[in-house]
Amino acid sequence: RHAGEISNMALDLLSATTTFKIRHMPATQLQLRIGLHSGPAVAGVVGLKMPRYCLFGDTVNIASRMESGGLAFRIHMSPHSQRILDKHGGYKLECRGSMEVPGAGEMRTWWLWGRDGFTTPLPDPASAPPPKK
Prior knowledge:
It contains 3 helices and 6 strands. The protein has 133 residues and is of the alpha+beta class.
């Protein structure tokens, strides 16, 4: 259930970038890239002077790798999340191919393009500038 809810939120966030205006750069579209992974995590408040809510674990690290290895205007996910969404049904997924994920090895990853009944416009990935090398 959580993977579906997070995927729905990711689609909503990506859709919001089509109308969001950056106050000091109104002609520039906000570029968002999103990474998803499903699995166990540990959470807690860390610090005394300035407490922060933190998440720990391999799940958090792999989700971060999905984001950093993704592209603007796209939702990039691990095979763990892809399998869960396939069980839910109704999500539009496309295999991106394999990539090396530090700490996790070779991983076949997926793009999330939408879901049944989601009619809100999404940004066109082709309009994003090429990734920096």
